[in-house]
Amino acid sequence: MSDDKTNTEARLISKAIDGVLDQGVAAVLITVINLTEGESRGLRVGSKLLTPESGEKVGTLGAAEFDEAVSRQAHTFLSSRDEARVFTVEEFAAGLTEFQGVQLLFERIEAEPRLVIAGAGHVGASLARLASLVGYRVTLVDDRAEFIGRDLFASPSEQSIDLVVAEDWADSICTAIAGGRRVSVAIVTRGHKQDEDCLRAAVASNPSYIGMIGSKRRTNIVLDKLREEGTNEEQLKRVRAPIGLDIGAVSPEEVALAILAEIVAERRGGSGAQLSSWRRNQTST
Asked: Chain-centre distance of CA 192, in angstroms?
């Protein structure tokens, strides 16, 4: 492949990656990292193919049949939740014997996960700070301007937190969620009315995760109210209420940790179980 063609494909892939990130969708970037027989089969080390979860492929690894097989594996890779993994061709396309031994790097391409927090009290503020530290793009919403002043979130790690004064809770939450893809919503407001408004807006916006703080009684009151209004039962079943994992949290910071732990587990497909449980089970048998 000529240098001009290589540079053109690199620019196209770079532009396509920007589009993936802007649209909030996911894609897989596949790169040839090792060949067993040089470039004799039309492949070369460094060739790249971008496969969005929906839409057309960009680039080529050097052979149309090979690109198709790799693209099918890319969709399987996306469902695995892995960030990156090296495959040899025989792991997913044993029939392509002429490409055996070729090694490919699969890399997940997607925008950083987003977290919308309704309520900037002690728990909401702690959650915003913690989530921003672990890589979430955070929007913190409250109807009390004095709770979300930039002076309260002035450290370098907090500058990326988007602070929104809600003149109307529902409108603000819907706007913050936008398309809903890869968006988690944590409702940690100060009362039933605010909870109802935020949950109603969140359910309608269909984010990836919705959780609401409160006792079982308080959360059931809110859920029952929405149920009476005709909200779809399947949508309500998706709501994590009370929000968070049971870690015995007491302080606002600990509650924030319990909430974020559940959000990460949901996003990554984790169980929330203790990682050491296998050892205790092994000992007891």
From this structure: 28
Question: What 3-state DSSP class applies to 61?
Answer: coil
Of the candidates 155, 52, 166, 65, the residue with the CA atom closest to the CA atom of residue 110: 52
Q: What is the C-alpha to C-alpha distance for residues 53 and 62, in angstroms, rounded to an integer?
A: 21
pTM comes to 0.79
| Residues 133/264, Cβ–Cβ less than 8 Å | no
Cis peptide before 52 (omega within 30 of 0): no
Span 120-137, pLDDT tens digits: 999 999 999 999 999 999
Domain ranges of the chain: 3-110, 114-268
Measured in degrees and rounded to the nearest 5, phi and psi for residue 177 equal -70, -35
Q: Which CATH class is domain 114-268?
A: alpha beta
Whether 283 shows a pLDDT value over 80: the answer reads no
Tokens of 138: 């955070």
Residue 228 has phi, psi (to 5 degrees) of -65, -30
Which helix (H) or strand (E) covers residue 104, if one does?
A: strand 103-110
* 114 strand-pairing partners: 137, 183
Give the containing element (helix H, strand E) for 115: strand 114-118
Q: Which residues of 157-180 are buried (b: 16+ CB within 10 A; e: fewer)?
A: ebeebebbebeebbebbbbbbeeb
CA 190 to chain centre: 27
Q: Report whether 113 contacts 184 (CB < 8 A).
A: yes
Q: Per-residue confidence at 5, pLDDT binned at 50, 70, 90? A: low
